[in-house]
Amino acid sequence: MAVSTVYTVLSLNSACSISKPNKTHLGFNQKQLVFFKKTTTITTTRRATTVITCSAGDTVVIGLAADSGCGKSTFMRRLTSVFGGAAEPPKGGNPDSNTLISDTTTVICLDDYHSLDRTGRKEKGVTALDPRANNFDLMYEQVKAIKNGVAVEKPIYNHVTGLIDPPELIKPPKIFVIEGLHPMYDARVRELLDFSIYLDISNEVKFAWKIQRDMAERGHSLESIKASIEARKPDFDAYIDPQKQYADAVIEVLPTQLIPDDNEGKVLRVRLIMKEGVKYFNPVYLFDEGSTISWIPCGRKLTCSYPGIKFSYGPETYFGHEVSVLEMDGQFDRLDELIYVESHLSNISTKFYGEVTQQMLKHADFPGSNNGTGLFQTIVGLKIRDLYEQIVASKTGAPLEATKA
Amino acid sequence: MASIAGLTLKTPRILAKTSDSPKTKAINNFSFPWKKRFNTQFPRLVAAAAPEGLSEKVAESIKTAEEACAEDPVSGECAAAWDEVEELSAAASHAKDKKKESDPLENYCKENPETDECRTYDN
């Protein structure tokens, strides 16, 4: 018999909420919260549950939509590195956990909210991209709980075995990142996100990357890789792609325009599409905000090797929204190219001169460290840090205002 | 009860062609994926064998996908089969990267920095 009484605790931490114990469809009990209040008339039956104290509720939730990359992806590692500290899987837990935890950040993989495991999906004939294979109710409840400072028991989807493993405890961090295929699909979850990013890889680049990844694998051939992409495309276009319009920032990766007929996918053209009017987010710009600029840094002051670097910046419309687009085509060869470019970008939210370059160098072995993907991922990481600091500052400012009034 | 017993007997047969000894532990979990498992020991054997075991899984899943799609190229089964191939390929490449990075001494020292082998002297 579950304890059904719920007390709303009116304390300083008014952002706290106590959720009634819910049985998820998997039979996992969420942590029961029982605040034992000693009064003369009311007594509650105390069950053997842990009393969870709420944190200040200042968790910032970031959503990242990316195809087949979960927690271990380069973007996440760059992002957590900007905040300081290395992100690692939880110690002592399931070795196949997809979660990454650092001092300030926790990254969870939305694959953990699959309602159907691999066999289940095979039987029903649905891909993981299909919303029917995901439990959005549980996702919403748990993300809301974390945002309010309540720890949750989150299921684990084991990518190696294809099964759903016993849950792990996730404690609310300062920055909570949800990475996966559907962070912005459900409207309720979308409301909880403080900032959202969509990683849009064009088909040609995706094909080139998958070839690099899979050709060494026994059993794979060019045809099988192509067939795999083609088979997933309908579901991808129907369910994942539309999330682009909701994202606050889109990183679009396209083949380069500097090399005619290039199909290796080594040199990339990357566009950072930033929505205008997002609270606490000021888009990066080149030289003059709101104007259209085309810039080739290579010349007298800077010598670059083939194919060089080309930047452009300008306002555009994207799915009916006003956006600013910063684009980089080409790759960096030397450190001084990177620092030169950084010194000409504005609104990058660095704390000191050369921070972007330093971050890029720290992870020089990561893929994309010499082109726009690494650069824009690092810049987005810095913007998120800036966003977090602004949110925290506004939250600490507000109670002071209330006490003054 | 009989039906449950029937289930458990059936699944190993389906998996017979794919099962090796490291995977027998996984089969026990296979029949009731929705049940909470209080495993004190996670099937580490499967994870340790990841690259070889995973490579085989990838190769088999490709064969299954090609068969499924030969019958009906636009069916849900075809898409689900290729999605599985994609998932396994991703897992295989992640496992390969993890294997490349892991240095036994570094891993040990992360957990036990106070031991003699791991002490660092700054001055």
From TrEMBL, chain A:
Coiled coil: none annotated. PROSITE patterns: PHOSPHORIBULOKINASE. Pfam families: PRK. SUPFAM superfamilies: P-loop containing nucleoside triphosphate hydrolases. GO terms for molecular function: ATP binding; phosphoribulokinase activity; protein homodimerization activity. It is found in: Plastid, Chloroplast. Residues 61-259 form the Phosphoribulokinase/uridine kinase domain. GO terms for cellular component: chloroplast. CDD domains: PRK. The keyword rRNA processing does not apply. Its main location: plastid. Its EC number is 2.7.1.19. Pathway: Carbohydrate biosynthesis; Calvin cycle. It catalyses: D-ribulose 5-phosphate + ATP = D-ribulose 1,5-bisphosphate + ADP + H(+). The keyword Ligase does not apply. One of its GO terms (biological process) is reductive pentose-phosphate cycle. Keywords: ATP-binding, Calvin cycle, Chloroplast, Disulfide bond, Kinase, Nucleotide-binding, Photosynthesis, Plastid, Transferase, Transit peptide. Belongs to the phosphoribulokinase family. This is Phosphoribulokinase.
UniProtKB/TrEMBL annotation, chain B:
One of its GO terms (cellular component) is chloroplast. Residues 94-123 have a biased composition (Basic and acidic residues). Disulfide bonds join C69-C78, C109-C118. This is CP12 domain-containing protein. Residues 54-123 form the CP12 domain. The keyword Transmembrane does not apply. GO terms for biological process: negative regulation of reductive pentose-phosphate cycle. Keywords: Disulfide bond. It comes from the Eukaryota. PANTHER family: CALVIN CYCLE PROTEIN CP12-2, CHLOROPLASTIC (PTHR33921). Residues 91-123 are annotated as: Disordered. The keyword Cell wall biogenesis/degradation does not apply. Pfam families: CP12.
